[in-house]
Q: What sequence folds into this?
């Protein structure tokens, strides 16, 4: 159940190089089905699903729930592969290690756990947070885990050193979601303080803060090629930002519902927004407007994953 790392365990992992190749740049994928409709439903949990994560290479998805379990599903068959009672409270965050061997979860019990999901056992637990942890993300190197906490902080955990390497202060209310700028050392956070912030994970400092939301920011998402960030709030407002020019590109008002989850398609041509009324709204980035609404859920859509080939969306 141990996570295999190339840096000597117990020592701080060196900060990653800046000049890493983003494999999404200069590459086109299959056209996204933006006129999607629900084709399959899996009765996954007894209580609300708070997030989902797609395996980096396989057609399997991990779900986490208010029922305190995390589960892994075969998307082709709908078969449940694993079910684990992983925490003493609801589980809010989940993400797969880039190698696909482990996953990380975060919970209302204030812990962050690294799991060997093949053997269904945890290989490490971090107890540094003192309040519920809403979200977690692996860095693309697999050596670091980022967390978003109700106490208005973000933490970066080093899996070699098995300790917190960095705490990020700046938000004045709960940090609800986080997203790495792919294949870089930067990330974005969205907070109940109505702001969206870009951070350098190495220095612990804010690079830029975007203002414009009038209510709680529920989710943030980086485009796969970087440079573009989307954010959604509790008033149904989606904003798309250019992190290079440091400007808001456009705003879409999705009406009287909250925006709880966001994901770009693999080509970064569309943005999928999961809403509090159970619908998915598809935003065309070039047209700067919502072009489709898909229904299927009766409750809030709290997690979205677009398939590796860009042909399916899982919620």
A:
């Amino acid at each position: 159940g141990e996570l295999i790392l190339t840096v000597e365990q117990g020592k701080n992992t060196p900060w990653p190089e800046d000049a890493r190749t983003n494999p999404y740049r200069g590459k086109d994928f299959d056209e996204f089905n933006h006129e999607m409709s629900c084709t399959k439903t899996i009765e996954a949990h007894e209580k609300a699903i708070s997030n989902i994560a797609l395996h980096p290479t396989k057609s399997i998805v991990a779900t986490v729930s208010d029922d305190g379990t995390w589960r892994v599903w075969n998307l082709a068959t709908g078969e449940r592969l694993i079910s684990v009672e992983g925490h003493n409270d609801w589980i809010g965050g989940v993400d797969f290690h880039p190698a696909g061997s482990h996953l990380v979860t975060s919970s209302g019990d204030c812990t962050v756990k690294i799991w060997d999901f093949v053997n269904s056992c945890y290989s490490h637990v971090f107890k540094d947070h003192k309040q519920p942890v809403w979200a977690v993300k692996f860095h693309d190197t697999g050596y670091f885990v980022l967390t978003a906490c109700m106490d208005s902080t973000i933490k970066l955990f080093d899996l070699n050193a098995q300790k917190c390497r960095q705490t990020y202060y700046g938000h004045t209310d709960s940090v609800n979601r986080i997203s790495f700028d792919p294949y870089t050392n930067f990330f974005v956070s969205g907070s109940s303080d109505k702001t969206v912030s870009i951070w350098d994970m190495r220095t612990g400092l804010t690079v830029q803060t975007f203002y414009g939301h009038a209510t709680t920011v529920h989710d943030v998402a980086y485009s796969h090629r970087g440079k573009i960030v989307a954010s959604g709030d509790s008033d149904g407002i989606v904003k798309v930002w250019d992190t290079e020019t440091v400007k808001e590109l456009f705003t879409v008002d999705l009406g009287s519902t909250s925006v709880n989850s966001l994901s770009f398609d693999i080509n970064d041509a569309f943005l999928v927004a999961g809403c509090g009324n159970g619908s998915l709204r598809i935003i065309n980035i070039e047209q700067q407007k919502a072009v489709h609404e898909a229904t299927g859920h009766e409750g809030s859509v709290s997690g979205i994953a677009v398939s590796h080939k860009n042909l399916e969306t899982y919620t």
The CA atoms of residues 182 and 226 lie 6 Å apart. Residues 1-6 have pLDDT under 50 and may be disordered. The two ends are 29 Å apart (CA to CA).
